[in-house]
């Protein structure tokens, strides 16, 4: 017996005042309506309706049962409506603004995985290093945590990571692996260049010892104002570069790059997602925000697990 269907039919019989009228409203055969009510009474072990040739009335048990059935069916209708509204909201277009490296290595793969679950959500990704982004023009803007945000803007940290040293296995096989920060002076370094700013000595930091920073004069065999350019060169064996863990996580996991000089880093990087307002935030935006945080967290967790020392079993 379909108990839910029987409950709906029972309620309709009462509301319509008879089996024939309920059958017409439900577009069912009168015999089917009668059978469902009888099956329900048999299941409950109590008569719900008093039937005569002229009228139909509820028994005391039927009155009590009907009040509960109405409440249950109303809850089910509300749940269905809520789910349908959520489905409709999980569609439409997400407009995202992000810097080049974050767009390519975090937003794009995270969006692709998000669409596997929510295929009706489309993405319009704008890639730009904007000094003063128009946050109100996008559903989500990713930017460095150092950027000042206007009042009313909602911000959530997406990435809080380290900028680590890495190189390809091919380069390390040919030139050796640096054992100390000072060894970097003997290697082919690939460095980020800020337009209009003179390249300074490389700062190397031990995150376990705050304040114990080291400055090293190194030769930059390649400079660029675009992190992906240096990453591509490192993958081809050009030298050692410094990149955020999240961005190079897939390459470290695949073995195309190897981290060197752990636990030494060159800086920390925080990326936040800025949204125009928490009020009236579409379901798709809220869901993608949560997804993006989890995606970045899993990426760096995988890398740090690889760096963790292997514990040997005690004999």
TrEMBL record:
Protein name: LysR family transcriptional regulator
Keywords: DNA-binding, Transcription, Transcription regulation
UniProt-listed Gene3D superfamilies: 3.40.190.290, Winged helix-like DNA-binding domain superfamily/Winged helix DNA-binding domain
Pfam families: HTH_1, LysR_substrate
GO molecular-function terms, A-Z: DNA binding; DNA-binding transcription factor activity
Organism: Caenimonas koreensis DSM 17982
Signal peptide positions on this chain: none
Similarity-based family: Belongs to the LysR transcriptional regulatory family.
Phylogenetic classification of the source organism: Bacteria, Pseudomonadati, Pseudomonadota, Betaproteobacteria, Burkholderiales
Domain (HTH lysR-type): residue spans on this chain: 1-59
């Amino acid at each position: 017996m379909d108990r839910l269907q029987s409950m709906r039919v029972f309620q309709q019989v009462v509301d319509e005042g008879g089996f024939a009228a309920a059958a017409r409203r439900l577009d069912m055969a009168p015999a089917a309506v009668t059978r469902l009510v009888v099956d329900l009474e048999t299941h409950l072990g109590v008569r719900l309706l008093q039937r005569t040739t002229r009228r139909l009335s509820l028994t005391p048990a039927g009155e009590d049962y009907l009040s509960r059935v109405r409440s249950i069916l109303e809850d089910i209708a509300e749940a269905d409506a809520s789910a349908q509204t959520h489905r409709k909201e999980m569609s439409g277009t997400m407009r995202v603004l992000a810097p080049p490296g974050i767009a390519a290595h975090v937003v794009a793969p995270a969006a692709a995985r998000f669409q596997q679950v929510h295929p009706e959500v489309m993405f319009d990704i704008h890639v730009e290093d904007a000094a003063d982004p128009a946050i109100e023009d996008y559903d989500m803007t990713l930017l460095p945590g150092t950027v000042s945000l206007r009042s009313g803007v909602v911000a959530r940290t997406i990435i809080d990571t380290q900028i680590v040293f890495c190189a390809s296995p091919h380069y390390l096989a040919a030139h050796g692996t640096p054992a100390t920060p000072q060894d970097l002076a003997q290697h082919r370094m690939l460095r980020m260049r800020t337009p209009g700013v003179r390249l300074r000595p490389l700062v190397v930091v031990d995150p376990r010892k705050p304040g114990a920073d080291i400055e090293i004069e190194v030769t930059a065999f390649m400079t660029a104002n675009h992190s992906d350019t240096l990453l591509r060169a490192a993958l081809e064996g050009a030298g050692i570069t410094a990149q955020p863990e999240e961005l190079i996580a897939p390459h470290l996991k695949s073995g195309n790059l190897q981290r060197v000089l752990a636990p030494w880093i060159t800086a920390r990087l925080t990326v936040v997602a800025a949204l125009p307002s928490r009020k009236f935030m579409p379901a798709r935006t809220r869901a993608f925000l949560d997804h993006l945080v989890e995606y970045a967290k899993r990426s760096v967790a995988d890398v740090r697990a690889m760096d963790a020392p292997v514990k040997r079993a005690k004999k």
